[in-house]
Each structure stands twice: as C-alpha cells, then as structure tokens.
Amino acid sequence: MLKATYAIPDLPPKGELETGAVLRATVRAHRHLAELKGRASSIPNQGILIDTLSLQEAKASSEIENIVTTQSELFQTSLFPENPASAAAKEVALYRDALKLGLDRMREQQGLLTNNTIVAMFQILKRTDGGFRETPGTALKNESSGELVYIPPQDGAVVRDLMGRLEAFINNDDACDLDPLVKMAIIHHQFESIHPFPDGNGRIGRIVNVLYLTRQHLLDIPILYLSRFITAKKSEYYRLLQIVRDRGDWEAWLIYMLSAVADTSIETLRLVENIRILMADYKNRIRTEHRRVYSQDLLNSLFRHPYTRIEYIQRELGVTRQTAASYLDELAQAGLLSKHRLGKHNYYINDPLAALFLDPT
To answer: In the chain, where are the structural domains located?
Structure first.
C-alpha cells in the first residue's frame, strides 16, 4: 500500500497563521467582499445572480480539471438537458446542480455544511451512489511530467475520521478565533489534502468554499466563485498547496486564497453592476416601447436565463404558449433578443447579457 506523504494536521493547524501579511490581505478581502454583498442586493431578484453566476463558476471550475466547454454549449445544455451540446457541457451542468443541492441542503439544516451534504454533491457531480474513498492506491501526479506529487491518506477509515474532524471544524464557530476567510482557506487546503473522493475533489472543494462564505453570512447568496482566479493562476495554486505539505508554510497559501477572494470580489462586483445597468436599460426600453409585453416577471426571466425558450416564459409568467411565443418574437424583432433554432425548438438569447459573462468589464 502507498504511504501518505503528508501528515494531515489537527485543526486549526499549529503555529502562527494570521501573520502581519495575512492580516493585511484579510482586511482587503473583507472590504471588497462586503462591497459585493451590498451591491448584489441592488438586483431585484437574487435568483438572477445565483442561476447565471453558478453556471459561470461551473464552467471555470471544470476547466481547472481540463473539462472544457464553450459558453454557448453550456447554455444550450441548460436549455435542453435531454440533448446536451457536448459531454463536457453535460458534466459542467452537473457541477451547477451539485452546487444548488449543497445550498438547498445547507439552508434546510440551519446553516450546517455536513459530510452527508458533501457526499450528496459528489454523487450528483459524478453520477454515482459512492462516497468517500475506501480503496488504497490514489496518488496525485503532475499533469505535464507525470511526476508523483502527493499521496493522500490511503486507509478508508482514516479518510472518514479526517472528514469527520473537518466537518466539526467547518460547523463549530467557537473552535478557534481565526478570521472566517483564513478559516475558509484552511478548510480548502485540508479538504484537498484529505482528497476524500476517487474523483471530483477539486470541484467539490471549490463548492465548499462558497457555501462556507454563505454559511458565515459574508455573502447572502453564493455568488463569489474563485475558479476563474485559480484557472488564471493554476500552477501557483498547486505549488502553494504542496508547499504547505512539504514545509508547513501556511502564509503564502493563505495570502493566495485571500487575494483570490479580493480580486474575484472586484471582478464580480463589476459584473453585477453591469448586469444591473443592462437590466435597467432593458426595463426602460421594454416598458416604453413594448408596453403590451412588459412585466417585472418577464424582465427577471430574461436575465435569469440568458438563453431562454418559450416554455420558460410560459411557466414563469403564467401565460399561454402562444402568448409567450408572441412576447419573445416581439422582443426579437426589436433587437432585444436574437432568435435561434435547434432541431424542432426555437430559443432566444439575451446577447448583451451573454457577452457580459465572457468579458465582465
């Protein structure tokens, strides 16, 4: 049996964690995160942000694991799950479904983020009824060189014990006096080092990040997703994960994760503001130029689903199929949407909104 190459520490880890540099990074991260939380409340329907941004996170998080799809494929698969645009797009959509389940479960359980929920998210993501690793033999290798990088705990009983301790650390707010953002970074490192599942650990670990921020009320809804930052600095992410294991040096890892929170908050804030501006413009144009079709419910639907179909409008507005189709066609003829066809089905794209996700600036 392989021998683990890192002694998983007790939580919280021993030694000085909140150094001067870490505390400075923490202040910056909290400032931008609080600004994002406040600005998000300016969007009339919070579901708009949850649905649209969770898809972007699903795409970015999956890219870290070399599961790559286009935005168009992703939105098309969301519209027509029975006919996914690609296998990669289907797998990305499962990530979004796992995240939604995690949020729903956490809300049902008064904010607790349990191992049962984490396993349920894994089962959705990987379409399995399995759970934590039981069979030895897992080893992590460098993608490029094939070099052995890290051997996580091998024994199933040890994995379960470590995950039990991590669950307690996540949910016990009195266990230590660490800043919650520092604690989030430690939780993420511990989860990735335990590597509890046969596959999908990176993606599940990144879902845990945002659920923990929501649990701590640093966000009202899970809209801060770190995967785009990690994708852009992927080699640094893996290098710093390993430095903690090799040297017990937490500072650089903590600063990396705090920088991810700050920088992603700034980028997401810009995106949320641009969505708000675009939404206000659409509201004014539809209410002024298309009074027959205007309603707040219609506006919300067009921004909740950048790619939409007649059935969505029919369901969300409580109108007939014919009425829903006439609304969408009128807006398409006015240039507010573009109309497309896939097989026997028409669908409509809010092109300016879809463009924002590709370039939030």
So the answer is: 46-257, 290-358
**Is the model more confident about 278 or about 342?**
278
- pLDDT band of 238, cuts 50, 70, 90: very high
Tokens describing residue 4: 């683990």
Of the candidates 119, 89, 91, 121, which has an alpha carbon nearest to the alpha carbon of residue 103?
121
Of residues 91, 123, 121, 93, the one with CA closest to residue 106: 121
Q: Poorest-confidence range of 1-5, 129-133, 340-344?
A: 1-5
Q: What CATH number should be reported for the domain whose range is 290-358?
A: 1.10.10.10
Residue 199 Rama label (left phi>0; alpha psi -120 to 50; beta): beta
How far is Cα of residue 56 from the mean position of the Cα atoms in its chain? 8
Class of 46-257 in CATH: mainly alpha
Per residue in 286-344, pLDDT (tens digit) is 999 999 999 999 999 999 999 999 999 999 999 999 999 999 999 999 999 999 998 88
- What ranges in the chain are assigned the alpha helix state H? 20-40, 46-64, 71-79, 87-108, 115-126, 156-171, 180-194, 201-215, 227-232, 234-247, 251-289, 296-304, 310-317, 321-333, 351-358
As a whole number of angstroms, the distance between CA 98 and CA 133 comes to 19
CB neighbour burial string for 318-343, b if at least 16 within 10 angstroms, e if fewer: ebeeeebbbbbbbbbeeebbeeeeee
* pTM: predicted TM-score of the whole model, two decimal places: 0.91
Whether 2 and 136 have beta carbons less than 8 Å apart is answered as: yes
